[in-house]
Amino acid sequence: MEFRILGPLAVSRADGRPAALGGCKPRTLLAALLLARGRVVPDERLISLLWDGERPSTVDAQVCTYVSRLRKALGCPARLVRSGGGYLLAPGGTVDAEEFERLTASGHDELRADRPARAAGLFRAALELWRGPVLAGVAEPLRAGEAARFDELRLTALEGRLEAEITSGEHLRAVPDATAFVLEHPMRERARALLMAALCASGRTADAVAVYHRGRRLLDERLGIAPGPALRAAYQRALDAQPG
């Protein structure tokens, strides 16, 4: 069984068919259980996610109904277990978010071991698992609480991929993606430093210096701070690499 939360919540059953999960509430219930990773999610937690403070009088019966529907949709009723005043999803199958974390951790390990080409492949494989906004179709109280964390993991993986590509000599490939990344997230100093590194490796040191000064102005105007050590080091390397 395959569970996907890096985009619209989706499940492929053991027989390969997609599971018909129904509307927002059963999807939210399943997403909460997936995120718990085999731990019990108490009834009160589920109720607060499903109804966001507007608890209906028939809440217990409705939760039971959603659980029953999910058991049928998954095609494996024993996976969704009642335990200790709540529910849990028994281990089994694959979850794209867990695979993403495994791949990115391995990518960082390969970078530390000075194997950037292998690291780049792992980061690319991890990023390919994303299909859109995380937990799309799930109730906002749960989605909002998790989306920022997953988005930060994705951005960190993208930075890891760029570093691996630059280190392995694929700086020309990295420049367009790093440029787009910095345009979308102009306050991320590591991304800006990586763009500068890619430009320097491509012989574009003047452009790298210009990227630094744009970042310095933004940090000063928006946050009232100076560039951090990584960005200053990238600037010094760009100055040292300039001809003459």
Global outline: elongated
Low-confidence stretches: none
Number of helices: 10
Main β-sheet, spatial strand arrangement = 2-1-6
What class do helices, strands and sheet pairing give? Answer: mainly alpha
Model description:
There is one protein chain. This protein has 244 residues and is mostly helical. Helices cover 63% and strands 7% of the residues. It contains ten helices and six strands. It has a three-stranded mixed sheet. Strands 3-5-4 form a three-stranded antiparallel sheet. A hairpin with a 5-residue loop joins strand 1 and strand 2. Helix 5 packs antiparallel against helix 6 and helix 9 runs antiparallel to helix 10. The chain starts with a strand and ends with a helix. The model has no long low-confidence stretch (mean pLDDT 93).
List keywords for this structure.
244 residues, mainly alpha, three-stranded mixed β-sheet, three-stranded antiparallel β-sheet, 6 strands
List the helices and strands and how they pair.
Blueprint: E1 2-4, E2 10-12, H1 24-36, E3 41-42, H2 43-51, H3 59-74, E4 80-83, E5 86-89, E6 94-95, H4 96-112, H5 116-127, H6 140-167, H7 171-184, H8 189-201, H9 205-223, H10 229-241
Helix pairs in contact: 1-3, 4-5, 4-6, 5-6, 6-7, 6-8, 7-8, 8-9, 8-10, 9-10
Keywords: DNA-binding, Transcription, Transcription regulation
DNA-binding region: 1-91
Family: Belongs to the AfsR/DnrI/RedD regulatory family.
Summed up:
The protein has 244 residues and is mainly alpha-helical. Helix content is 63%, strand content 7%.
